[in-house]
């Protein structure tokens, strides 16, 4: 495992995020109707079209890909630049994810925390937590990078 990340970001990005993404991968496979129908917490689910089904399954596949990339990059590299660039890309994607959710839910539902279902908590709450953690790490607020065992320290 990469020892570049400080303890808290390492826990978040190498354990919690991949596990959440695996959940996002499995959810539409196990129950496509519920997964797709619950994306907007205030709408009563309706029968799925073929397009909605394929989009839900493709989204699940994207979550699986994110989990594999996170594991592949963060467990394999001891290069701070690689970790930094990976987390910058993820932070940009977080903003896009939040924007997409906001665009569909609208302001009132986006900020109605009491009205969120489990998918809204993932799409908004967990994504916002990941974004804040990424930015906190990138700005140096969550500790310093560690030097990997056996890595050469450049002077």
Topology:
Elements: H1 7-30, H2 32-37, H3 50-76, H4 80-111, H5 118-138
Helix pairs in contact: 1-3, 1-5, 4-5
From the structure above, extract its key features.
155 residues, mainly alpha
Written description of the protein model:
By secondary structure, this protein is an all-alpha fold. The chain is built from five helices and no strands. It has helices at residues 7-30, 32-37, 50-76, 80-111, 118-138. Helix 1 packs antiparallel against helix 3 (50-76), helix 1 (7-30) packs antiparallel against helix 5 (118-138) and helix 4 (80-111) packs across helix 5. The protein is globular.
- How many angstroms does the end-to-end distance come to? 24 Å
User: How many alpha or pi helices?
Assistant: 5
In terms of DSSP E residues, the strand content is under 5%
- Rg from Cα: 17 Å
Q: Could you estimate the helical fraction of the residues in percent?
A: over 70%
Q: How confident is the prediction overall: mean pLDDT?
A: 91
N to C succession of SSEs: HHHHH
Taking the sheet with the most strands, its summary is: none
Total strand segments: 0
Question: Which residue ranges are poorly predicted, with pLDDT under 50 across at least 5 consecutive positions?
Answer: none
Q: Which overall shape is indicated by the principal axes computed on the Cα atoms? A: globular
Structural class: mainly alpha
Overview in brief:
This protein has helices spanning 7-30, 32-37, 50-76, 80-111, 118-138. It contains five helices and no strands.
């Amino acid at each position: 495992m990469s020892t570049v990340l400080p303890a808290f970001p390492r826990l978040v990005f190498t354990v919690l995020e991949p596990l959440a993404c695996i959940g996002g991968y499995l959810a539409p496979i196990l129950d496509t109707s519920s997964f797709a129908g619950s994306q907007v917490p205030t709408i009563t689910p309706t029968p799925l079209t073929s397009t909605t089904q394929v989009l839900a399954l493709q989204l699940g596949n994207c979550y699986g890909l994110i989990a594999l990339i996170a594991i592949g990059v963060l467990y394999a590299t001891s290069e701070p630049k690689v970790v930094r660039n990976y987390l910058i890309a993820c932070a940009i994607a977080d903003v896009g994810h939040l924007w997409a959710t906001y665009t569909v839910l609208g302001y009132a539902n986006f900020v109605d925390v009491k009205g969120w279902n489990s998918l809204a908590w993932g799409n908004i709450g967990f994504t916002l937590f990941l974004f804040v953690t990424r930015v906190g790490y990138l700005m140096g607020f969550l500790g310093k990078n560690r030097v990997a065992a056996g890595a050469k320290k450049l002077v």
